[in-house]
UniProtKB/TrEMBL annotation:
Protein name: Polyphosphate kinase-2-related domain-containing protein
Origin superkingdom: Bacteria
A Gene Ontology BP annotation from the UniProt entry: ATP biosynthetic process
Gene3D superfamilies linked to this entry: P-loop containing nucleotide triphosphate hydrolases
Coiled coil: none
Annotated organism of origin: Xanthobacter autotrophicus (strain ATCC BAA-1158 / Py2)
Chain ranges of the Polyphosphate kinase-2-related domain: 13-235, 271-492
Catalytic activity from the UniProt record: [phosphate](n) + ATP = [phosphate](n+1) + ADP
GO molecular function, one term: polyphosphate:AMP phosphotransferase activity
PANTHER family xref list: POLYPHOSPHATE:AMP PHOSPHOTRANSFERASE (PTHR34383:SF3), POLYPHOSPHATE:AMP PHOSPHOTRANSFERASE-RELATED (PTHR34383)
Lineage, broadest ranks: Bacteria, Pseudomonadati, Pseudomonadota, Alphaproteobacteria, Hyphomicrobiales
Keyword field: ATP synthesis
Length: 496
């Protein structure tokens, strides 16, 4: 894939000077169209050997674009494990719609580095590339376009340039992406791995563009032209079609009688007061011990609560909070997305709240809203919630690989019990804030929610992150089951 870049590509200074004004004008016009539309964002990935001029290309783009809507996205690049999942830092920095992010180094760095150093086998390397391709497909579907550029420079010339830049009294900043890759053998493995990665992840929606970097003027002109083409292609994309009306809330189409996984639960399960107090205290003590153990400092806990309205999520979380060091956990109540959150992929607002190792994040409602309320209420189309199952599985797999314990609960109650709790809330002044007209209206869509929950559990309950269905008709039983499950999962992950 790098073959054509090995031949000479030159553009003399006079020709570059002649084309630059029109290129700059066209780039600004295309950027203003992106800013005005606010339908998509663009990330420009710039890779290449150290010495190829990545920093110089970045500076050229800044001189051509409206810098108020451009972000530089750079990351420290250790090959060692990080304090959060490897993808966390990239998720956190995603630019909002209407803006451009220029990324020096990206999610490709770690696998390429490990491959070059011989610490990652080919099977794992190809698996990581496959995961990146899925990640980029998700970004594209969620409004983030990608322009992937590899600056090609012969290895000997790249090293000569690096040596030249380091000489003299004034040393300019040098963008070192591969400082840890030393030695001829490692550099050769990096080159071969880079070619393989470019071939494997060059897709229709996010192809790689290999830019010869030996001649600065040619390199800058080609990068600017590629950026202009990408911005124009983004502007030419049709407006998204309006979403169809939500389905009839009283009908779930099926050739067979509808099945609900929630119907398999025994809602009569309960605990007496004395038994409840004893078992709750025991479970809380176990959680306290485990989350303060030295092994937990190398792990983390992410808990997602979903369930029927009035199923007791808040009161259960309150009992869980009492078992945790308040300095090392946060509860994230999830409501309708803000304007800031709507301007990015839907998983962004959850990714940015992933805690550091040794800490706990509790989500009161979660990323499963995409396949629950957004699906049932018609807030996203079937294509969106249909692909979300795989995206969520990838998200949770990344968490578990990074050492996090992911625990997911669905708190279930019957329609009759929900109605009783709603009526109780209406009568108690300090509970009225928990009840809205929307809660009553949602009861009309009970069959659709049951169908959505059944599919959600079927498609996202994995060995690493299984769903726990909680019979919540009796709040005492539900609270104890939840806390026992958290303690059991921690013990299994941390070794007791």
């Amino acid at each position: 894939m790098f073959e054509s870049a090995t031949f000479e590509h030159r553009l003399d200074k006079a020709a570059f000077k002649a084309l630059e004004p029109s290129l700059r004008e066209d780039l600004l016009n295309a950027q203003f169209a992106l800013i005005e539309a606010k339908r998509r964002s663009l990330i420009v990935l710039i890779h290449g050997p150290d010495g190829a001029g990545k920093g110089a290309v970045l500076n050229r783009l800044y001189s051509w674009l409206d810098v108020r809507k451009v972000q530089t996205l750079t990351f420290e690049m250790p090959c060692a494990e990080e304090d959060r999942p490897p993808m966390w830092k990239y998720w956190r920095e995603l630019p909002p719609f209407g803006q451009i992010g220029v990324m020096l180094g990206s999610w490709y760095h770690a696998p390429l580095c490990k491959r070059a150093l011989g610490t990652m086998g080919r099977a794992d390397f190809m698996a990581s590339l496959d995961e990146m391709e899925r990640f980029e497909s998700m970004l594209h579907a969620e409004g983030v376009s990608l322009l992937k550029i590899w600056l090609y420079l012969d290895g000997d010339e790249a090293r000569r340039r690096l040596k030249s830049l380091s000489k003299g009294d004034y040393q300019r900043p040098i963008v070192r992406e591969w400082a840890e890759v030393e030695g001829a053998a490692a550099r050769k493995r990096l080159h071969l791995a880079s070619e393989e990665a470019a071939r494997a992840t060059s897709t229709e929606i996010a192809p790689w563009h290999v830019v010869p970097a030996a001649d600065t003027e040619y390199c800058d002109a080609m990068v600017g032209s590629l950026l202009l083409e990408k911005l124009r292609a983004m502007a030419a994309e049709p407006e998204p079609a309006p979403l169809p009306l939500p389905p009839n809330p009283t009908h779930v189409p099926s050739l067979l009688p509808p099945f609900s996984i929630l119907s398999t639960l025994d809602m009569s399960r309960s605990l007496q007061e004395a038994e409840y107090d004893r078992e709750l205290a025991q479970a809380q003590s176990r959680i306290t011990r485990l989350t303060n153990a030295p092994a937990f400092a190398r792990s983390g806990l992410v808990i997602a609560f979903e369930g029927s309205d009035a199923a007791g999520k808040s009161s259960t979380i309150m009992r869980l909070r009492r078992a945790l060091d308040p300095r090392r956990f946060r509860v994230h109540p999830i409501a309708a997305p803000t304007d800031e959150e709507r301007a990015r992929p839907y998983l962004w607002r959850f990714w940015r709240h992933i805690p550091a190792h040794g800490r706990t994040a509790i989500f009161d409602r979660s990323w499963y809203g995409r396949v629950l309320v957004e699906r049932v209420e018609g807030l996203c189309g079937p294509d969106d919630w249909g692909r979300a199952y795989g995206e969520i599985n990838d998200f949770e797999a990344q968490l578990t690989r990074a050492g996090y314990v992911v625990v997911k609960f669905w708190l279930a109650i019957s329609q009759e019990e929900q109605a009783r709790r709603f009526e109780e809330r209406e009568k108690i002044a300090y509970k009225r804030f928990k009840l809205t007209p929307e809660d009553w209206r949602n009861r009309e869509k009970w069959p659709l929610y049951e169908a959505a929950v059944t599919e959600m559990v079927d498609r996202t309950s994995t060995r690493e992150a299984p769903w726990t269905l909680v019979e919540a008709e009796d709040k005492h039983f539900a609270r104890v089951k939840v806390l026992k499950t958290v303690a059991d999962r921690l013990e299994a992950a941390l070794g007791g």
